[in-house]
């Protein structure tokens, strides 16, 4: 099977690594890729968000399967174009991807399907915003309706800041604050059948102790030994399958990866958000633990074959990913800083490095080109060993201004420190 992978981040490097391990995958192509992905796949120039560009490349490389990593191409309709050209595509079409592309659409789907989520109102005017802020009270949760690359959500006790974010965004969803640790449950979906992957946890805030601004995610780990044993099954039954049924009922069946961001509140699980793609950096740890060959699974999801896929097999032990970020991330990340130490990091037992925001700047010279630059991934027989390996690898990396959270997998994200 020849696979074309669309995207260029750490998530795509993890996908490429897992696909390259699958013996059924005989050819691996990526666009645009990054220098890390280029060590595993033949990379090509194509505009990821341009349906014609991706479809033409898929035909050129003779792809049997196109795997779309990021949300922007999905919302731009790249999946529809690839399928219209007669190729198998892992990733929903534009209409179904709106479950990520529009917060108000996602809320409508959840209401129709009776999926537990925060009570919410969609507001288009200042008066509606004021009324909603009064109704829900602090902490205020204000979300831009459209795709915002992780910058659309403000959670604050400051009413003026909440109102100001709403005024900046235009149409917003204002909702009830959900109090509980957050987990990410990914499910492969083929329109009908869904298969849950290992739940993982991401650290969204920039600074240690869950302080600082929201980011795209600063680190992740799996498995979640503290979470209820039936979590993935419960998420399938109460969240994933009802969402798939509702999208099918609307005539826009969902195939690809459905990501449920869940808050484990005292009242039960509640959906914080849906995404239409693998999460980053959770994918880096989840795929590390997956023993079932990935190419066949993604092909089954793309072609309606998940019912025959059988149970997934997971490696014992744990994986931890630490995001090494550029100076100034998330507000204004520096770019063009030279990266060193990758070979040393890769020699740490149990560890390896995935590339996210990197570019080649001449032969042998690797520079930063995005806010989240690298992922140091550690694995081991337990979380402590995996964590130690990840941090040893991160410490080997040299880059001006590089920084990372020191508390990834130390304790679950979103839980207070223990009483002294
Ligand atoms: P979203 O893009 O919807 O995932 O929001 C980004 C982050 O904001 C989430 O991961 C949460 O940490 C936080 N957040 C979003 N919605 C809520 C909510 N209703 N209650 C508490 N925190 C939230
Ligand atoms: N890790 C959060 C996300 O991918 O949206």
Tell me what the structure shows.
There is one protein chain. The protein is 31% helix and 26% strand. The chain is α+β, with helices and mostly antiparallel strands and 420 residues long. Strands 3-2-1-4-5 form a five-stranded parallel sheet, sandwiched between helices. It has a five-stranded antiparallel sheet with strand order 12-15-18-22-19. It has a four-stranded antiparallel sheet with strand order 6-9-7-8, with helices on both faces.
Radius of gyration: 20 Å
Strand order of the largest sheet: 3-2-1-4-5
How would a crystallographer describe the biggest sheet? 5 strands, parallel
Please give the count of helices.
Answer: 13
Compounds present?
adenosine monophosphate, glycine
Mean pLDDT: 95
What characteristic shape results from the CA principal axes? globular
- The proportion of strand residues reads 25-35%
Q: So what's the oligomer here?
A: single chain
Unreliable segments (pLDDT under 50, ≥5 consecutive)? none
Number of strands: 22
- State the share of residues found in helices, binned by percent: 25-40%
């Amino acid at each position: 099977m020849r696979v074309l992978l669309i995207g260029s981040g750490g998530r795509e490097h993890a996908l490429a690594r897992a696909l390259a391990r699958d013996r059924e995958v005989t050819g691996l192509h990526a666009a645009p890729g990054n220098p890390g992905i280029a060590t595993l796949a033949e990379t090509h120039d194509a505009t990821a968000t341009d349906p014609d560009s991706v479809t033409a490349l898929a035909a050129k490389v003779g792809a049997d399967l196109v795997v779309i990593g990021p949300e922007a191409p999905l919302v731009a309709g790249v999946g529809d174009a690839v399928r219209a050209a007669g190729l198998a595509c892992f990733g929903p079409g534009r209409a179904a991807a709106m479950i990520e592309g529009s917060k108000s659409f996602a809320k409508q789907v959840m209401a129709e399907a009776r999926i537990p989520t925060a009570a919410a109102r969609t507001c288009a005017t200042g008066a509606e915003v004021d009324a909603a802020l009064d109704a829900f009270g602090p902490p205020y949760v204000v979300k831009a309706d459209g795709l915002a690359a992780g910058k659309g959500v403000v959670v604050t006790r400051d009413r003026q800041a909440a109102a100001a974010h709403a005024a900046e965004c235009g149409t917003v969803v204002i909702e009830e604050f959900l109090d509980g640790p957050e987990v990410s449950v990914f499910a492969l979906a083929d329109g009908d059948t869904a298969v849950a992957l290992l739940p993982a946890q991401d650290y969204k805030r920039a600074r240690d102790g869950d302080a600082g601004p929201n980011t795209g995610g600063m680190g992740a780990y799996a498995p979640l030994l503290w979470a209820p044993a039936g979590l993935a099954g419960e998420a399938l039954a109460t969240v994933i399958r009802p969402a798939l049924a509702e999208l099918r009922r609307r005539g826009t069946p969902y195939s690809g990866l459905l990501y449920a961001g869940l808050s484990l509140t005292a009242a039960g699980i509640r959906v914080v958000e849906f995404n239409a793609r693998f999460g980053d950096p959770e994918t880096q740890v989840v795929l590390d633990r997956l023993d079932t060959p990935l190419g066949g699974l993604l092909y089954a999801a793309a072609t309606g074959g998940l019912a025959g896929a059988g149970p997934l097999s997971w490696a014992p032990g744990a994986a931890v990913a630490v995001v090494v970020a550029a100076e100034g991330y998330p507000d204004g990340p520096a770019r063009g800083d030279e990266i060193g130490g990758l070979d040393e990091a890769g020699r740490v037992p149990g560890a390896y490095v995935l590339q996210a925001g990197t570019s080649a700047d001449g032969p042998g010279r690797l520079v930063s080109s995005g806010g989240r630059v690298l992922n140091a991934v550690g694995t081991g027989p337990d979380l402590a060993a995996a964590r130690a390996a990840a941090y040893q690898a991160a410490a080997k990396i040299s880059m001006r201004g590089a920084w990372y959270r020191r508390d990834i997998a130390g304790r679950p994200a979103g839980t207070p420190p223990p009483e002294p």
